[in-house]
Amino acid sequence: MNIYFIGIGGIGLSALARYYLAQGHQVTGSDLEQSEITDALQKEGIEVYIKHDPSNIPSDVDRVIYTAAVNDDNEELKEAKRKEITTQSYAEALGELTKEHFTIAITGTHGKSTTAAMVASILIEADLDPTVILGTKFDQLEHENCRIGESNYLVIEADEFDRSFLEHYPEILTVTNIEEDHLDCYENLENIINAYREFTTHLPKHGELIINGDDHNAKKLKHKRTQTFSLQNPESEKIKNILQIPGKHNVANALAALQTARALDIPDEVSFKALSGFKGVWRRFDIKERKLKGKKITVINDYAHHPTEVKATLEAADEKFPEQKKWAVFQPHQAARTTNLFDEFVKTLKEVTIDKLIVTDIYKVAGREEKKKITSKELVNAINQENVVYVPKEKLKDFLSKNLEGQLLTILGAGDIYKLEQELTKE
């Protein structure tokens, strides 16, 4: 087939594009911005247009697949529908693959990417040769987000945003945790839990549901064959000692991966070996040694954008580098999320152990913003602590270059803030 991807630079859609390219299909696509992902896709032979324009779509295209970030008024999507070309969302296209494979789906409010990558690592170590489609990159996939295997196993990260995961039909479903998030889609926690409940009905009778026994909301999910994992499990201490990535949240992620592997009858010694070699994934406590004005600094890049994730990441930084003076930059993600979870953000950012926390401008998500334009300044004012300050995004580089104290900088956010690391340390 000739397949065109709208929003091909997205971390999930780019993985799917790579999958179809590896299957021998002709792949092209577009995105609004050039990025390291679009550059990599072009090197792999995929033509990528850095704009959305109806004329980009090949005349002989068979299918158009679009990211969840694309609205109905997107010019390329409207053109595809006008020409009666088959169109699919990313979730729908991935859902097709889940029906064709023995699918292991990892979902939850937090930890999906890391847990899915851990599961993939274990299956690779067990010589089960899985296909893997993730919303992140990691070393075992040669720092990519897609792996093509020869077996029928498929490992995916199932996104709950806009109930996307309801397009998927796994044999094994692992739920890391359930909290309030994406309230612009769900409105309240009850609707979120109900969506997860509906997802569990997509499991066959012989399927396996694996849930976090420490999570009150996850425990509300039921299936004929249900297994739990918990930080109280006897394996917790061993996992903590062998993991190369810090934080009890990562111990929980590893326990989820271990229980998932057991559902596949993979021996524990294989799982422990894979977990001991796991070095983390892109933008999840991603540690780099850099230089700033001739001085060595350690930079942690993390995707954290929910109060629980921010707290877990900063606690892990404190655990990993207890003697270091700690600075952090946080870019809130989406005005709607910042509004809906405002009190939780204030509480979390007041309580975390940090020498200096810089809050920069909110990353705006097209088509998903509320009319009320809450600002990062309001968040900082509500926190009302001397060690928490607001700095506009365009002034971050100069502010940090002049003022950064200590050797540890944690960069937090799901938007484009991760680019700060290279901008700051180009020398």
Topology:
Elements: E1 2-6, H1 11-22, E2 26-30, H2 36-43, E3 47-49, E4 63-66, H3 75-82, E5 86-89, H4 90-100, E6 102-107, H5 112-125, E7 131-138, E8 144-147, E9 153-157, E10 172-175, H6 183-186, H7 189-200, E11 208-212, E12 226-229, H8 236-242, H9 248-263, H10 268-276, E13 286-292, E14 295-302, H11 307-320, E15 326-330, H12 335-340, H13 342-351, E16 356-359, H14 376-383, E17 388-390, H15 396-403, E18 408-412, H16 420-424
Parallel strand pairs: 1-2, 1-4, 2-3, 4-5, 6-9, 6-10, 7-9, 10-11, 11-12, 14-18, 15-16, 15-18, 16-17
Antiparallel strand pairs: 7-8, 13-14
Helix pairs in contact: 5-9, 5-10, 9-10, 11-13, 13-14
Quick structural summary:
The chain is α/β, with parallel strands linked by helices. About 35% of the residues lie in helices and about 20% in strands. The mean pLDDT is about 90.
* Main sheet makeup: 7 strands, mixed
> What radius of gyration results from the CA coordinates?
21 Å
**Shape summary:** globular
Poorly predicted residue ranges: none
Count of β-strands? 18
**Major sheet strand order:** 8-7-9-6-10-11-12
Describe the fold and architecture:
This protein is of the alpha/beta class. It has helices spanning 11-22, 36-43, 75-82, 90-100, 112-125, 183-186, 189-200, 236-242, 248-263, 268-276, 307-320, 335-340, 342-351, 376-383, 396-403, 420-424; strands spanning 2-6, 26-30, 47-49, 63-66, 86-89, 102-107, 131-138, 144-147, 153-157, 172-175, 208-212, 226-229, 286-292, 295-302, 326-330, 356-359, 388-390, 408-412. It has a seven-stranded mixed β-sheet with strand order 8-7-9-6-10-11-12, sandwiched between helices. A six-stranded mixed β-sheet has the order 13-14-18-15-16-17. Helix 3 (75-82) links the parallel strand 4 (63-66) and strand 5. The longest helix has 16 residues, at 248-263. The N and C termini lie far apart (45 Å). The model has no long low-confidence stretch (mean pLDDT 92).
